[in-house]
C-alpha cells in the first residue's frame, strides 16, 4: 500500500513539473500557418492562460524563423490593418488567444524544409514570468486551426 501511495505522489509531482510552476502563465494549442508563397511570412498562434499576476508577452522565439514580430489586427477607417506591437497583455488568471484576425506573431524567413503536419519549437518570452517552450503544429496555407 505504501508503494502505491508513493507511486501516486511521485506521478503527481512529475506532472506538476511538466505544467510549470503553480501561479505562472501556461500556454497550449500552438500552431503556425505556413505561407502560401515561399519567402512570404507565416503566422503563429497560441493560447496563453495568465498566472497569479498580470504579465506581458514580450516576444516569441521560433528557431525555424530568422525574425518574429508580435502583431495586432485592427480595423481603421473600415480597412483591416496589421501593426507590430511591443507586447501583448496577459491578465492575471485570464486567457489570451493569439488567433487569425487578432493578435498573432509573424514569422519571417521561415526554413523552407518545414512542412504541414510537422511541428517546430516555439518559446514565449514574458516580462514578469518564466519563458514557456512548446511545440507548434504546422498547418498548410489556408488551413484551419488544428
Automatic annotation (TrEMBL):
Coiled coil: none annotated. InterPro entries: LpqE-like, Lxx211020-like, PCuAC_sf. PANTHER family: BLR7088 PROTEIN, COPPER CHAPERONE PCU(A)C. This is Copper chaperone PCu(A)C. The lineage of its organism: Bacteria, Pseudomonadati, Pseudomonadota, Alphaproteobacteria, Sphingomonadales.
